[in-house]
Amino acid sequence: MTFRIAVVQPICHRPGTDVANVADAARAIARAADEGAQFVCFPETYPGPWRMPATFDPTAAMVEAAAKHKTHVVFGTIAPIDAAAATACNLICMAYPDGRAPARYRRTHPNGPWIYTGGPAWEFQWVPGDEFPVFDTAHGKVGLAMCSEVYVPEVTRALALRGAELIFMPAGLDKRRLWETWRTLLWARAIENLALVVSTQNLVGDADRGLAIVAAPEGVLYESTVPGMGIVEVGLDRVRELRAGRDGGGASETCGAKQGVLSAQWQRPELYDSFHPRPLPTAAE
């Protein structure tokens, strides 16, 4: 069974006018639904806001649009914690076609809050989350992650080990010199987790080089560097076949990625603590 993902790479309104992104996003959802999309993916912190104190919350509008057009909507916003301290979590959310409360992932990596302060775009004191939830949909199990977490393979592995087959990793702005490695790692996350990985980014002008992509374990299904929307027809049957398979002699004749890498054939959980040893606890005084 196949379904369609709309990957939206918008020219966004910058901080100070970013509330206008909400109406743009609603129009994109309507267009994507008209083209049969079951998922619509927006970039990190889109529609916004980008800064604290937060001047708007797009959640209700995204939930309403998802329900109206009967599609899932992956979008970005922040969750304010303390206005005086300018603290907030950075969220990737997924609104559902039935209008229920959206799924939420609070960015977990890296150690902050430097990543969202001191630049021309974001300005808040980031507080990380500590959970890796996955979410059931009619099309498969979804995991949510964010932007440069693509450089931390433990994030998507945690989602895959929890059953995520379709992982959305919306990103921020032009990747500049990081572009090649970023693209490589997005596909790598699909290969090593036997999952579909979807990403896109904000553009602030036509001169920006985007990175919208849908990567499968055995190949990149879609990519674009320009503003706009791509509609990609995908399925999870091959992902599930590769996950259920077992690697062996001659497998490279029929498989473009290693089978079963989440299974007991490959995994040695008894070694996990030795990957990153923790200090031994000391006796209480």
Strand content: 15-25%
CATH topology: Nitrilase/N-carbamoyl-D-aminoacid amidohydrolase
Task: Provide the residue-averaged pLDDT.
Answer: 96
Distance between the termini: 61 Å
The shape is globular
Brief synopsis:
The protein is an alpha/beta fold and 285 residues long. The protein has six helices and 13 strands.
Characterization of the model:
The protein has helices at 20-34, 59-69, 153-161, 179-193, 237-244, 272-275, and strands at residues 2-9, 39-41, 72-82, 87-95, 103-106, 125-126, 134-136, 141-144, 166-168, 196-199, 212-216, 219-224, 228-235. The model has no long low-confidence stretch (mean pLDDT 96). It has 285 residues and is an alpha/beta fold. The N and C termini lie far apart (61 Å). Helix 1 (20-34) packs parallel to helix 2. The chain has a single domain (2-275), classed as Nitrilase/N-carbamoyl-D-aminoacid amidohydrolase (4-Layer Sandwich).
Blueprint (SSEs and pairs):
Layout: E1 2-9, H1 20-34, E2 39-41, H2 59-69, E3 72-82, E4 87-95, E5 103-106, E6 125-126, E7 134-136, E8 141-144, H3 153-161, E9 166-168, H4 179-193, E10 196-199, E11 212-216, E12 219-224, E13 228-235, H5 237-244, H6 272-275
Parallel strand pairs: 1-2, 2-3, 4-6, 8-9, 9-10
Antiparallel strand pairs: 1-13, 3-4, 4-5, 7-8, 10-11, 11-12
Key structural traits:
6 helices; alpha/beta; seven-stranded mixed β-sheet; about 280 residues; globular; Nitrilase/N-carbamoyl-D-aminoacid amidohydrolase; 13 strands; six-stranded mixed β-sheet
